[in-house]
Write a structure and sequence with these properties.
alpha/beta; binds guanosine-5'-monophosphate; binds manganese (II) ion; binds sodium ion; EAL domain-containing protein
């Protein structure tokens, strides 16, 4: 496929970049950023990750790209004057191949980022193929002091059993529920997930928060953190200089 071939060149030709989306506590203070990959294709312009990540996942390219994102995001965060956290998404492919725990360890050493400031986001699909192996790898990563967040929570098939299999550090409520706050089903589901977080002593972050009405609901329900356009869009980190403690 043409895109696959082009993607191969993307890293070395510096077409990949990372944008950062702020994550805030419920009072509005920014506590960290999620790193999100962007590809500026030389002729086709911006290609969304929903298109190119699946292509990368068909080959060993995802390993290479995943390493690049992790290293870049950790290097970036290590340079922030304020010690905010950085969240990096992991592809299931990175669990199957590659030596994920060794990679994380060496990137932390190389960049000097404090392990407590790194959060790795995984989806349930990571746990589906080889649960034993994924849990063992995640355990090694956690032992480094890195946190693991369950992304897109509520959209997979058996979220609750996974919460029993592995000690996650955070749950990210999928934006599809947040979008439908106001409909009774979504409100009830969000309430239940927040309650689950309380019971399991896990912080809950709501994704895709766009309106003050949604924020008001999440505040009322004692959600811990929020992420979404209301707090800030994914942007180059230079746009968030003030948040990371740099002079503008
Ligand atoms: O930023 P955006 O909403 O376009 O991201 C779309 C999807 O791409 C999300 O599911 C997000 O998790 C995924 N994605 C973005 N950056 C990365 C990355 O660096 N690695 C992986 N594996 N997925 C990413
Ligand atoms: O799957 P994951 O949660 O990693 O991906 C986050 C995706 O959600 C990114 O593509 C990001 O651009 C998008 N996103 C972040 N905040 C909002 C929001 O408030 N509204 C919408 N519609 N999308 C958002
Ligand atoms: Mn994510
Ligand atoms: Na998500």
């Amino acid at each position: 496929r043409a895109l696959q071939r082009d993607l191969q060149a993307a890293i070395s030709q510096q077409q990949l970049s990372i944008v950062y989306q702020p994550q805030a506590d419920i009072g509005g203070d920014v506590i960290g950023f999620e790193a999100l990959l962007r590809w500026n294709h030389p002729t086709r312009g911006n290609i969304p990750p929903s298109v190119f990540i699946p292509i990368a996942e068909e080959s060993s390219l995802m390993i290479e790209i995943g390493e690049w994102v992790l290293r870049e995001a950790c290097r970036e965060a290590a340079a922030w004057p304020r010690k905010l956290s950085v969240a990096v998404n992991l592809s299931p492919v990175q669990f199957k191949h590659g030596d994920l725990d060794r990679l994380v360890k060496s990137v932390l050493i190389e960049t000097g980022l404090e392990p407590e400031r790194l959060e790795l986001e995984i989806t349930e699909s990571v746990l589906i193929d080889d649960l034993e192996r994924a849990i063992s790898t995640l355990g090694h990563v956690k032992a480094l002091g890195v946190r693991i967040a369950m992304d897109d929570f509520g959209t997979g098939y058996s979220s609750l059993s996974y919460l029993q299999s592995f000690p996650f550090d955070k749950i990210k409520i999928d934006q599809s529920f947040v979008r439908n706050i106001g409909l009774s089903q979504s409100s009830a589901i969000i309430r239940a997930v927040i309650g689950l977080g309380r019971g399991l002593d896990l912080p809950i972050i709501a994704e895709g928060v766009e309106s003050t009405d949604q924020l008001a609901f999440l505040t009322r329900e004692s959600c811990d953190q929020v992420q979404g356009y209301l707090v800030g869009r994914p942007r180059p980190i230079s746009d968030y200089a003030k948040y990371v403690g740099r002079a503008e």
